C-alpha cells in the first residue's frame, strides 16, 4: 500500500453518487486528495450536499454509484482490522468539533489520546501537545483546561489539533471554524495550512466563509444541487459566474473576495 508521502491520491471519489433513504443528494462527484497538493475547497448553497460528500469520503454514507477509494481500496469495504489505520489517515473535523468528549476531560488528555491512537496505528506525528496547540493558535496554557470550560471556538481548535496529531494523509474540514471569531480565523487557517503542508497532509475544506476558503484553497469546486458546476480558483470561478448558483455566490461574496469584479 502507498504511504502518505506517495504522490498518488490518498483519497479519491470517482463518479460518486450518495444520499439518504434511497434518494441521491450528490452525483457524478470526482475528487482527488493527494498529500503534498494544495488544499481544495468546496463551496455552495445550503443543502447542496457538501457534508454528504464528506460523509461519503469517510465511509459514513455508502455510495449508491461510483467509488470512494483510500490508497486504491474501496472505503466501504475496509475491514475492522484496518479501520483504525483508516481513521488515523483520513480525519474529518466537523462544526461540532469535540462534542462527544466528556466535558471534564483535559485538553492534554484529548490530544494525548489522539497521539496514542496515532502511535498504535503507526502514524505518530512526533509533535508534542504544546506544538499541536500552537498549530491551531492556542497557547500551551490551554493544555490542563477541562474541555467543558472552553469556548466554542477553542473547542473547535482542540478538535483540529487532535486531528493533526495523527499526521493524516487527508484532513476533511467541514465548517471547522464557525465558532472562531473572524479576526482569529485567518491566523488559525494560516498555521493549520503550514502544519498540513509540513506533514504532507491533503486538506479538503467545506465552508460558507469564502474569505477563509480563498485564503487556504487555490482550487475550489462549487457544488449546486448535488453536482460540481464550476471549478478553479475562487476569483476565476466567481468572475466567470457560469451557473446561477455561482452568480448568487458572487453577489453575496464579502468585499474582501470581490477582487474579481
Ligand atoms: N441524515 C439525513 N437523512 C436524510 N436527509 C439528509 C440527511 N442529512 C442530510 N440530508 C439532506 O441531504 C441534503 C444535503 O445535505 P448536506 O448536509 O449534505 O448539505 P450541505 O451542502 O452540507 O448543507 P449546509 O451548507 O447547510 O451544511 C439536504 O437536503 C439535507 O436535508
TrEMBL record:
Pfam families: ABC_tran. It comes from the Bacteria. Belongs to the ABC transporter superfamily. It comes from Isoptericola halotolerans. The lineage of its organism: Bacteria, Bacillati, Actinomycetota, Actinomycetes, Micrococcales. Keywords: ATP-binding, Nucleotide-binding, Transport. This is ABC transporter family protein. The keyword Iron-sulfur does not apply. Residues 11-250 form the ABC transporter domain. SMART domains: AAA.
Amino acid at each position: 500500500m502507498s504511504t502518505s508521502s506517495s504522490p498518488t491520491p490518498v483519497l479519491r471519489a470517482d463518479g460518486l453518487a450518495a444520499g439518504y433513504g434511497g434518494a441521491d443528494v450528490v452525483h457524478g462527484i470526482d475528487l482527488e486528495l493527494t498529500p503534498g497538493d494544495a488544499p481544495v475547497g468546496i463551496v455552495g448553497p445550503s443543502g447542496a450536499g457538501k457534508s454528504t460528500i464528506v460523509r461519503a469520503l469517510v465511509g459514513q454514507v455508502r455510495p449508491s454509484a461510483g467509488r470512494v477509494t483510500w490508497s486504491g481500496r474501496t472505503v466501504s469495504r475496509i475491514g475492522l482490522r484496518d479501520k483504525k489505520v483508516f481513521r488515523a489517515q483520513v480525519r474529518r473535523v466537523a462544526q461540532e468539533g469535540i462534542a462527544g468528549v466528556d466535558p471534564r476531560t483535559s485538553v492534554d488528555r484529548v490530544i494525548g489520546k489522539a497521539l496514542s491512537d496515532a502511535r498504535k496505528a503507526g502514524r505518530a506525528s512526533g509533535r508534542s501537545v504544546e506544538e499541536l496547540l500552537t498549530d491551531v493558535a492556542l497557547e500551551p496554557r490551554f493544555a490542563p483546561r477541562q474541555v467543558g470550560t472552553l469556548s466554542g471556538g477553542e473547542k473547535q481548535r482542540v478538535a483540529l489539533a487532535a486531528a493533526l496529531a495523527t499526521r493524516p494523509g487527508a484532513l476533511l474540514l467541514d465548517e471547522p471554524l464557525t465558532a472562531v471569531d473572524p479576526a482569529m480565523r485567518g491566523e488559525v487557517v494560516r498555521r493549520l495550512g503550514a502544519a498540513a503542508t509540513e506533514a504532507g497532509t491533503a486538506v479538503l475544506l467545506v465552508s460558507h466563509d469564502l474569505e477563509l476558503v480563498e485564503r487556504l484553497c487555490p482550487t475550489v469546486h462549487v457544488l449546486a444541487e448535488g453536482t460540481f458546476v464550476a471549478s478553479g480558483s475562487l476569483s476565476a470561478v466567481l468572475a466567470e459566474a457560469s451557473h446561477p448558483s455561482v452568480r448568487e455566490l458572487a453577489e453575496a461574496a464579502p468585499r474582501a473576495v470581490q477582487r474579481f469584479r
